[in-house]
Design brief:
The chain is of the alpha/beta class and 257 residues long. It has 8 helices and 10 strands. It has a single domain, classed as Rossmann fold. The chain binds S-adenosylmethionine. The site of S-adenosylmethionine (SAM) has 27 residues, from strand 1, strand 5, helix 5 and helix 8. Belongs to the class I-like SAM-binding methyltransferase superfamily. TrmB family.
Amino acid sequence: MPSDSRPQQSPSTPEPATGSGDSAASPAGGQGDAPAHPRITSCRTRTGVLKPTRQDVWDRQWGILGRDASDAPLDASEWFGREAPLVVEIGCGTGTATADMALAEPGINLVAIDVYKPGLAKLLQLIEDNGISNIRVLRGDAVSILEDMLGPGSVDGFRVFFPDPWPKKRHHKRRLLTTAMFHLMATRLRPGGGVHVATDHSEYAEFIEESGNAEPLLGPVTWPWPMSSVRLETKFEGRAARIGNSISDFAWGKLPR
Ligand SMILES: C[S@@+](CC[C@H](N)C(=O)[O-])C[C@H]1O[C@@H](n2cnc3c(N)ncnc32)[C@H](O)[C@@H]1O
């Protein structure tokens, strides 16, 4: 991602793109009368088996840095051992950009969410190798985690980079970024907090922009933005660039009460 990749409220129309729709899991959810509580109902089959070195790092670090989704509200300050702005990345994948962004923003407590165990194991490896102290990892459905573990007004920023676009019309109900999800994120943000989304799929970009703009608790970004607006290149973004897809970035701010 270019270093000036400041999120835009209304990007120019993106180029046609094939998208990044082959990842581990996607929740059901949708617009209008669709359920407000999307769940992971359809997963592309991927093995959750770790290779031995990754199993070793998992065994060393998961009990310290990782938790499974649960009904227990998250006390982030207690888990990180400090008070700091809380940024939540949904769908971190293998976490290469997560690690880079945590290193670039040492003053932020960064929670990375995904369902894909081998990806999370890779992130644990990056954390260990680089001595990163400001990442914690939650494994499970992001929707459930936001509903059950993150309190209203407790989050400074959300990042959702290259969510599965589910390009076929019959699969649109599986998309993560519905109006219901934008509302859920907005309720978890403190006033002045922000949502930063990126996608390389042109039709999903329009869907995302409409869904975010429809959320009454969200509006244009106000400054200071609670997290870095520079998006370091993610694994999926790298692939999008190689096949010539253009990237759309969006940002919204939580309106004052
Ligand atoms: C296309 S990948 C993008 C990964 C990463 N952000 C990147 O840009 O390289 C989407 C990721 O979202 C995760 N994901 C999809 N639905 C999810 C959900 N409901 N809860 C948590 N993670 C989810 C997938 O497992 C996958 O790792």
